Amino acid sequence: MTTEHVDGAPVVLSARRISKSFSGVQVLFSVDFELRQGEIHALMGENGAGKSTLVKILSGFEQPTSGEILLDGKSAKLPANGAAEALGIVIIHQEFNLAEHLTVTESLFLGREVTRFGVLDRKFMRAETRRVLDLLGSHVDENAMIGSLSIAEKQMVEIAKAISRDARVVFMDEPTAVLSREETNFLFRLVRKLRDKGTSFVFVSHKLDEVMELTDRVTVLRDGQWIKTSPTSVLDGEAIAQLMVGRELSSLYAAKTEPDIDEEVVLRVASVSTGYVRDASFEVRRGEILGFSGMIGSGRTELMEAVVGLRSRLAGEVLVRGQPVAAGDVHAANKAGLAYMTKDRKAKGLLLNSGMMANLTLQSLGRHSRLGYLDPASEEAALAKARRRFDIRVRDEKIVAGRMSGGNQQKLLLAKVMETDPSIIIIDEPTRGIDVGTKQQIYHFISALARDGRSIIVVSSEMPEVIGLCSRVAVMREGQIAGVLEGDEISEQEIMRYAAGLKKKTAA
Amino acid sequence: MSVNQEGSQEAIRRRSWRDIDLRAVAPFVALALLLLVGALVNPNFISINNLANVATRSAFIAIIAVGATFVISSGDLDLSVGAMVAFIASLMILFMNSGVIADPVLMLLAAILFAIVAGTLCGLTNGLITTVGRIEPFIATLGTMGIYRGLTTWLSQGGAITLKEPELQEMYRPAYFGTIAGVPVPIVVILAVTAVAAFILYRTRYGRHVVAVGSNRDVARYSGISVNRVRTVAFVIQGLCVAVAVLLYVPRLGSTSATTGILWELQAITAVVVGGTALKGGAGRVWGTICGAFILELVGNIMLLSNFISEYLIGAIQGAIIIIAMLVQRSLVRKS
Question: How close does chain B come to A250, measured CA to CA in Å?
């Protein structure tokens, strides 16, 4: 990206020597940050590096323990709880703050409804909403219910909300985590357009390629300290990754090991259909890593949930080692050695208010009970083992899962699933929202499990991940398996062709 | 990347005082403060006799509230328990009056079994309506509350149902008025019920599942827990606890009416919340619940002994207690 047009532009918002402690634990150490008018500034770092804390401080949701915030060059104390929006500082959260039962217009004007003679001026608000949406080139209906929108559309509404509030500074926390490639492209076009009109963006993301593509400057944090701020154009992905991790990244993926062609088929899914998924068939061999790629909403998660019995299936069979598994019965599937690791670790994977042990053993309490009595010593041993095996690092032994970093949560979730000792593990989005260092670890865990003789299905929207890990890749499109790629066929272009419907072949 | 070396030290640090959960301790601190206040107000208050009396009188609510702890921890609510007490007690007395079994001992045993089965079925009904019927527990048990209460009124024809057999009455009396090794039977029953409940909630798979279901149903479902079964069983446990309370209630008065157990559901819920169990589910504290039930009864006792405040204000004071308990709970959450 070019940096010319931001060089010398006035600094809108800056942080000087900001430190922050939470109940005695310091998470930011004298960090500097500056955001110029009309730039897209990437904020990068591993989980726990202090990105979200810095974002919260710069948007007024937290107050710094020491240090100073300057708005337009003047020292400022940002009002708390989102009141900084009035100053033009807006956060677009990873989890959207939209009420499902409001319409798009109502959401846009929530809290600052326009009235005439004390009565809501709906006509004006609708027209204004339409104007903003048109400005963004969005076709979202201003009268649609938020609940009826897709995730990308909801994000569009969030951005429209920011625009309609004359945002000068927009923080975006992992905005593309839930978007398909096309939706991401659209978002980027939009962000660039707004940048050229003078809006400043802070872009928090783990996706190096997107940072390279979109941003003008990069600031890297590590362990709560400022490491470097530099124009994006002088860095490459590898350099940023090294700055984040502070060490050379050896290869991200372990060497692929392809299973023998006559290795036993452990899982055979035959013509499974659910409401949306139609006639899906595939096989997995012992020790194999099978990838599932495709656009968001192509039915991958739905298919996997039907396979493990979390969702009922209308037709088709699931066979583990030749034995059929009852439909819609999680227990039967678990017994047969099938396990599913959800992509939604916060809402479906972990009890955020419980500690590590309660989470780890929740799915496998039978292993720790004798005559119906839970043996705490056995559970503690399991936790100690899991923490070593999956390198779960926490400051406080008794920490609740909700306070752990994303990477450690993901490792804990993987450990929890592995406690059931499954022979076939379906991992949905193994590295969503986690940093590069942890990603690498998780990839190596997955490879190690496969070498162990377990079979793994990796469902992922990140193509490099599928390509780097899997010996075969199934591509889904609109509820069907469009094709299964092997060997040299596995490339981004080829996967895209199937995902976009340009190519199709019968499933293997 | 390194293996954590803290492993051995962790176990030692585990029990340090900083780890004490304030929310778990708060009800016991409140109980201690109340005892202190009571002792200052009236020297008779702190006598063993008076305290044993208070504990005995708290038995019904305490035992019902132990069941409510399960229901609330699993994220549900049961409003029907007061009406259920009246219904089961009436059925039990009618059964004993029917004289189907001549031998009084056998009759009493059969009646006890009858009450327990009735409690199980009432709880099961609540559970199935909420889970299989997919009706909000608030509404479902509001409905069964009306049904149980209405059936009681119908059974008693608006009047009272009284145990007629004097021999049975005499034999059954000690179940409430007797003592075991000097301790009143109701107190023994409270302790026994609570100990069993605490074991189930903290030391069994089912207890862990209750908390998981209460704190996040999706997580529980994705962990292979059958959520509806866990919730239904919690309602059954509630029904069983109500039946145990009835077993103590019937020998006390030997009589029921349409107004038996009125507002007990609110007292039970208050005891649970005062005891530190989160009303939105996900954390159960059985001993705290018992403590909450004592606190409710103690406040009434202190008011009675003090002459400062009219005892007709007990309801209002109890209402205030639940609000204060919630405020305290929330402020403690923020600090931790």
Answer: 14
